[in-house]
Design brief:
By secondary structure, the chain is mainly alpha-helical. The protein folds into 3 domains: 83 residues, no CATH class; 244 residues, Neurolysin, domain 3, CATH 1.10.1370.10; 127 residues, no CATH class. 61% of the residues lie in helices and 2% in strands. It contains 18 helices and 4 strands. The strands form 2 sheets. A two-stranded parallel sheet has the order 1-4. Strands 2-3 form a two-stranded antiparallel sheet. Strand 2 and strand 3 form a beta hairpin.
Length: 517
């Protein structure tokens, strides 16, 4: 019996057969391409790891000994690395990596193809690198004069020279001073010193970063930054999340405002208005923990600020780092490798200029990890040590991954891990367990004091962190003009933080540059 087949079925069958043949050819072609891609990635991992070690070493040498010689060597290594990354980018984009069957290979090639600014022409890429180096140097080298040589009550260099650095000098003044005029002087002088010199460089940086982003297929550099979160709705989610937390922040804001009015008077702090940015115990008003002596609800009860107890027990920076290591090993994590203790900078040297901002370093060779910190004996620095050492622990955990995967799951994850550790370490029970806090009770007042300290540190920080990215992403996207950068910064700070500058600011100022990030 003959089978009758309709024309549509025949066509469908032929299409299916043709599709199968094409798919087979595609898979075979992809496999060949896959082999080449795997070989390229192996070569890249080896060469990039060596390059990373050399660049990181040169950056470390410059950060821990700021000289023109070290700067020149760092720039030379960065230039070589830039050429290597540009060649790697060209090679990676030569593959049709979106069609490769191996998801791990696709992911690595995708990262090489879209991250960074290597798509820029060489001249512009070098210009961008130079701008970043110059902005960092302005920030690191900035020094200001004391407010009054007759009114210095802090342990910093008491001389007539204008040599007060951000860390530890200005940080200490902003943390402990309750002199309105001194705080105003430090706040203004720091911004006057770093803002105007950085302003034009940052404008050009934005132009070049946007150019690079567009060459990589993005609308602007902000979109390119958000790509790392692998969630197109990340900004919307952040906005919604902040909206749920803002009422709690406003309660904290109102409570702190009342206490500041009591301390400084209504002529300096409006009882029904925003807070002056220089009175919150921190150069950027991002962390209000240093106001604890003014705002703690139950001052007669114990608090967890054990700085004085650490000094009484003879703590040193080295002992603080060993204490942090013991915390991590007690969790079953790894001890710091020998290179950490041999090469880290745990205290501020007296014989050379350094960049004091605390940071954790991975030298890309599976063994050399370091922390750079100008440590003082205080609870704040003890918590910072735990935070930075959490980064080192994260480095240790993914040390055997390909170089492209030796980073946080997204740009915020590393910091989240560090903050989780800090929250654990700062609890009264932990501080009692390590002998720094006595007579811890479960009294209501003691618990409220602890929660207030956490709110001053963490809740107060949320809107600041939010507006840093909102300002930066808005600038990249062209939501406002370059000639209103500073005004937009203060609009965001007023809207979300309820904070105003203590003196008038203009577009000649560039106050976002007062914050390294």
């Amino acid at each position: 019996m003959r089978c009758v087949v309709s024309i549509p079925i025949v066509i469908a069958f032929l299409q299916l057969a043709l599709g199968y043949t094409q798919e087979r050819r595609y898979v075979e072609g992809s496999n060949m391409n896959l082999g080449e891609a795997l070989q390229f990635l192996r070569e890249y991992d080896r060469e990039a790891s060596g390059m990373c070690f050399r660049v990181t070493s040169s950056q470390w040498n410059y950060s821990t000994n700021i000289t023109e010689t070290n700067k020149r060597r760092m720039l030379e290594e960065q230039a070589l690395s830039a050429k290597f990354q540009r060649l790697s980018w060209r090679r990676a984009t030569s593959y049709t990596w979106t069609r490769l069957p191996d998801p791990i290979v696709r992911r690595q090639l995708h990262m090489l193809a879209i991250e960074g600014r290597t798509a820029l022409p060489e001249e512009k890429f070098n210009e961008l690198q130079q701008l970043v180096t110059e902005m960092k140097e302005i920030y690191s080298r900035a020094r200001i004069c004391p407010h009054s040589l007759n009114n210095i009550n802090y342990n910093y260099r008491q001389s007539g020279n204008c040599d007060l650095a951000l860390d530890p000098d200005l940080t200490r003044i902003m943390s402990h001073s309750r002199d309105y005029e001194e705080q105003l002087h430090v706040w203004q002088a720091w911004r006057d010193t770093v803002g105007p010199p950085i302003r034009s460089k940052y404008i050009r940086y934005v132009q070049l970063a946007n150019h690079a982003a567009r060459l990589n297929g993005f609308h602007d550099a902000g979109q390119q930054q958000r790509e790392s979160y692998e969630d197109s709705e990340i900004n919307t989610q952040l906005t919604e999340l902040w909206a749920t937390l803002a009422p709690l922040y406003r309660e904290l804001h109102a409570y702190v405002r009342r206490r500041l009015v009591e301390r400084y008077g209504s002529e300096h702090v409006r009882p029904d208005g925003p807070l002056p940015a220089h009175l919150l115990g921190n150069m950027w008003a991002q962390n209000w923990r240093n106001l604890a002596d003014l705002v703690i609800p139950f001052p007669a009860k114990s608090t967890v600020d054990v700085s004085s107890e650490m000094l009484r027990q003879g703590y040193t920076p080295l002992r603080m780092f060993h204490l942090a290591e013991e915390f991590f090993t007690s969790l079953g994590l790894k001890p710091m490798p020998p290179e950490f203790w041999h090469h880290s900078m745990l205290e501020k040297p007296l014989d050379r200029e350094v960049a004091c901002r605390a940071s954790a370093w991975d030298f890309c060779n599976h063994k050399d990890y370091r922390i750079k910190q100008c440590t003082t004996v205080s609870l704040e620095d003890l918590l910072t040590i735990h935070h930075e050492m959490a980064h080192i622990q994260y480095y240790l955990q993914y040390a055997d991954q390909p170089l492209l995967f030796r980073d946080g799951a997204n740009p915020g994850f590393h910091e989240a891990v560090g903050d989780v550790i800090t929250l654990s370490v700062s609890s009264p029970r932990h501080l009692q367990g390590i002998g720094l806090l006595n007579n811890v009770t479960d009294e209501y007042e003691t618990g409220i004091n602890f929660l207030m300290l956490m709110a001053l540190e963490k809740v107060a920080y949320l809107p600041f962190a939010y507006i840093v990215d909102q300002w930066r992403w808005g600038l990249f996207a062209g939501d406002w003009n370059i000639d209103e950068m500073n005004a937009r910064w203060w609009e965001l700070r007023l809207r979300h933080q309820g904070i105003i500058p203590p003196i008038p600011r203009t577009e000649k100022d560039f106050d976002p540059a007062s914050k390294y990030h």
